[in-house]
Predict the 3D structure of the following.
Amino acid sequence: MSISILFTPTGASRAQYDDSIRGLEKNGPWPPDGMEYHVAFGEGGSFRVLEVWENQDKANAFAERLMPLLHDIGIDPGQPEIAEVIGVVHN
């Protein structure tokens, strides 16, 4: 069962997001195993990241790599919203 995770970090900037992606690319596979989609959107204080994962276990494994990096960059990911994916449509 795929899950979606929506992050609404407090006060994160585009520059911090770019730094996090560069850090992830340096420290292991990007995109990581089990990540189906990664979408970043918004501006300034309304910046968000939506990810779709193959399952919760793979998302949790990636979180062990992600959270220390976010801390080092100064991003507070806030409390993520997690929900089962019930449908995806794309071309």
The chain has one domain: 3-84. Strands lie at 3-7, 35-41, 48-53, 81-84.
